[in-house]
């Protein structure tokens, strides 16, 4: 194992423990990594056996599972497209899909919303998922399932050093895929979401839980700030 890899693993273990302990999280944070090419799959990570939704995969990782998934493993094509694993299906692009689900009054309002939802515009080979404390790779995005109170404390940590405001961006659809993975990856800024009907149904996100996406690149700054406001 290379020295760089050892450092990444040690940092992941440390940051995961600090986040879980300081925020009193029920689950460990989830490490997400975008795999551009097949040869980039992290060492010793196995392909997910089956086909479920991205939000369910994130929840499985929060509960302790590590794996990678390609578009073939993704049951929700809208979510799969948002995180850059395949092209967006036509019925989602046009707004028909969500209009038919009665989420919008018109196809136009559905399309307008879908136009503004974050989407990764390159096609990746796959996505790596793991609880952060066990991840053997550098996370691009770190996802947390949290209560509003825990999210409040995390918000305080995010603005601790540079100040400013938290600008949550969501629409009640495509939450665990677009809101807290694709969005933070594209903008390099954290985002919080109240989840969506699909994630609450299939990933079993509880009524008192929300989801948060952080950038793996600056997670050390967030943890340091959390430690400062928790002392």
UniProtKB/TrEMBL annotation:
Pfam families: DUF169. This is ArCR.
């Amino acid at each position: 194992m290379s020295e760089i890899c050892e450092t990444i693993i040690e940092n992941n273990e440390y940051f995961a423990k600090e986040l879980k302990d300081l925020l009193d999280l029920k689950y460990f944070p989830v490490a997400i990594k975008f795999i551009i090419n097949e040869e980039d799959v992290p060492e010793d990570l196995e392909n997910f056996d089956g086909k479920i939704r991205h939000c369910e995969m994130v929840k499985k990782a929060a509960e302790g599972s590590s794996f990678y998934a390609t578009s073939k493993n993704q049951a929700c094509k809208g979510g799969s497209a948002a995180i850059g694993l395949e092209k967006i299906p036509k019925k989602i692009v046009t707004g028909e899909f969500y209009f038919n689900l009665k989420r919008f009054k018109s196809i136009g309002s559905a399309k307008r919303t879908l136009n503004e939802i974050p989407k990764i515009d390159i096609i990746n080979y796959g996505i790596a998922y793991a609880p952060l404390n066990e991840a053997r790779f550098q996370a691009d995005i770190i996802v947390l399932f949290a209560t509003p109170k825990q999210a409040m404390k995390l918000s305080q940590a995010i603005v601790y050093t540079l100040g400013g405001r938290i600008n949550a961006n969501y629409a009640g659809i495509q939450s665990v895929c677009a809101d807290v993975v694709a969005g933070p990856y594209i903008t390099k800024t954290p985002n919080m979401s109240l989840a969506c009907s699909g994630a609450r149904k299939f990933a079993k996100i509880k009524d008192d839980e929300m989801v948060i996406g952080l950038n793996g690149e600056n997670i050390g700054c967030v943890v340091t700030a959390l430690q400062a406001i928790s002392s």
